[in-house]
Amino acid sequence: MGLIRIEEMEFYAFHGHYKEEQIVGNRFLVDLELEADLEAPSVSDSLEDAVNYQVAYRVVRDEMKKHTSNLLEHIGKRILDAIYRELDGVTSVTVTIRKMNPPMGGPIRNVSVTMTR
């Protein structure tokens, strides 16, 4: 078994509880961790035997851009569902979504949600 990590994918999207967030948008950072058996691709050196992390990036990008969600938890579930739908050989997925500078009444670097399935 092994881990594939894609860290700090950056997106500008329109997610949030408040209407202003859905109009103005915000910056989001997403981390993805995929657990899979990496033995076959380590021997074959072939993408056909590997979990294609370019596909994983596309899945996250598409879910971030697809439509507006009120909650980070909803985005997380959509990403987890899509990863399992699109990628074979993944045994565990962890996604962390960070909303940068959230509108909470004071200076806050980010708020994040981490989900694993």
Question: What's this model, at a glance?
Answer:
The chain has 117 residues and is α+β, with helices and mostly antiparallel strands. The chain has a single domain (2-116), classed as 2-Layer Sandwich (GTP Cyclohydrolase I, domain 2). It has helices at residues 19-24, 39-44, 53-66, 72-86; strands at 2-13, 26-36, 90-100, 110-116.
Would you write up a description of this structure?
The protein has a 4-stranded antiparallel beta sheet. The two termini are 16 Å apart. It is 35% helix and 35% strand. Helix 3 runs antiparallel to helix 4. The chain is built from 4 helices and 4 strands. With 117 residues, it is α+β, with helices and mostly antiparallel strands. The chain has a single domain (2-116), classed as 2-Layer Sandwich (GTP Cyclohydrolase I, domain 2), CATH 3.30.1130.
